[in-house]
Protein 1
Amino acid sequence: MVLSVIWIDGAFFMLMRLMSRLRRERCQAQAPARLSDRGATSHFVADGVRVSFGEGHPSPAVRGVLYPRILLPAGIDRLLNQREFHAVLIQELAHAKRHDNLICLLYEVSLCALWFHPLIWLPGARIAHYRELSCDESVIRRAHGQALVSALAKLAVPEQVGFLEATASSHFRYRLARLAGPAQTTHRAAKMLSSTSTRKEHHGKED
């Protein structure tokens, strides 16, 4: 009886957390539509997927489960050159076409029911890692790997530099190596992320 109550409480908490995240992401996805009435954003369709620009998006993301859409930060098309912008778009399109959000949702629903089992938590990080690697393949096949590394450097904010440098020793370093290809090392790619963010901090102080 006691164990049943504990399981119900845990499942209820996990379910509320999931619903809160979905509600927040839904609001973010709807924000461009509201802002577009004032002419603050623009939209286009790429390979059958709707792409929106908005001030409320700090980084590129895919929202929606059954009908995914790509959300991009306002001004990203001016910050990145054409090749870098295409690299980001190719990767986000891969996420949308593969319905990665649906896979993530199914996994999180299983967490709600089996939250008490330690093994159910282990695949989460691995799923996210291999999901990124799989989508990176779409970028690499089109020879845009180095452009994506450059785009990541330009999109990184100063607060994320410490995290990026810390994780570069494991999965992130491996991902950079695959994107950069034999012509670059992961050290150079990670250094690019750090130096670009340092320049952002410097410009911010000047402003």
Note: Residues 33-41, 183-190 have pLDDT under 50 and may be disordered.
Protein 2
Amino acid sequence: MKSLYCMVITTAPDRQEAENLAEGILNNRLAACIQMTDIRSFFLWEGALQKDDEVVLCIKTTEARYRDLEAYIAEYHSYDVPEIIKLPVTGGLPGYLSWLDSTTGGDWEGKKITNPKNK
């Protein structure tokens, strides 16, 4: 069964960029809810071990809005290769899933995506 909903995970280098991304995503109705928290990331980049403080964003949206959400993050994120991982949502409270639909669908689909903040 194909999922109609997904959660997208991305990280930002600091709280300000994370909040700017979240506001732009929500203002464009690319998602219904975003939660964020501070994390410490360990990763390999250009052959070297990196250790950085970051902010992780857990973004709840619909499959219908995913491509526009991915494009938005790629355009407005400061990283050369931002983490964008999509996880299917295979179940959930029907009322919550209905809220995801109503918040991200309708008149918002197909509208020009904007960012009120500078990149």
Note: Residues 63-76 form the longest helix (14 residues).
Protein 3
Amino acid sequence: MILFAVAVFPELAQPELSQPELPPDALLIQEGTASFYGRRFHMRKTSSGEIFHMDSLTAAHKTLPFGTMVKVSRVDNGDFVWVRINDRLPRYSKRIIDLSRKAATNLELLEDGITKVRIEVQNLEELNRLIEYYKDGKPNSLRLRPVDLGISIEKKEIDKSVSNNF
């Protein structure tokens, strides 16, 4: 019955709702220096218990939960790679992330050894998961803040002509 009414009287249809675009830095959680590790640690156990493979797209981070997928982007040229956190950096490290040799190769980092990077999460759900994970104990080095999104409503023109055919 409702479908019939909407088909006959389109003005009764609900306006289409769409999600607005995210601010450019909404998913950014950290900026700093990245390095890489490889041969010396190849086939050794990581902090998560996995065996490290230098040809996998993985990384070590000081505090992010194991299994977290992050986008690591070079600040200087915008190149990026997605990696999974499976190891820990020492707390005293000046780096924010240590990439596997494969991830470093994808970022053309092998010659330089270190570079400035941005770390982002995949989506708002992942950002909210991290906020919940850390609750009140968030490390100061991480930038975790909720993102509130408004709802955009499609604008419709209003017919301003008045009909006198009553």
Note: The longest strand covers residues 28-37.
